[in-house]
Design a protein that fits this description.
alpha+beta; 8 strands; Aminopeptidase; 228 residues
Length: 228
Amino acid sequence: MLKNDSKIFLKPINIEIMPAKNEHIKGIKILMKEFYQDEPVFNAQKIDVETLDESFFDYDKFIKNDMTFVAIDTSNNTVASLATNEIIKSDYSVVHREEADLKYKSNTNLYRTLRLGVSIETEPCLFKIFNVNKILEIRTLATLQKYRGYGISKALAKCAFLAALNNDSISIIRIDCTNYFSSLIARELGMECVVKKHLSEYKDEKGQPWINIPKKPNDLLQIFVFRK
């Protein structure tokens, strides 16, 4: 795990990777809004990110969770990239469904997008497949457009690997990819694709796809894992 005084520099730009701190919240807000504006599933649902309440982003959670890492451009202190990681347990999909039902039912497109996420978490259940009660999940890899192409997201993802290697209770690292580029990063990290499904296969109680399907190549879900 990186400590607060740890420094990883990437060239040709001056990027320092570190755990997220309170001072990074403003930059994280800018980054996460750009991330969701570009995200293929959100785009296909025509979700207006600017209208979303800040509780949806849950910025404080980024700071409380010591497994969230940011890449800072040291020349101007911009939060160039972000990786949110979380140790999840088998009941986490229940929590996410309750949260969606409680907070977001009035926003149909957002609600159905979140319910897609719940279906992805449970179909199939990786906890049963790998017989584990904890999994380290790389939840978000986000990079501002001007900083893409330098391998920053890949470097941030490696921080999750370091966290897992230093935690004896974690044997599986997981990343769910509905974005083609995140799937490329997963492959470059040597992760194994254990699930590959067209997003239309995830259906609601009436047998209808949860969402409007994004265009290729972002119409697939791919779940990658790394086994220690």
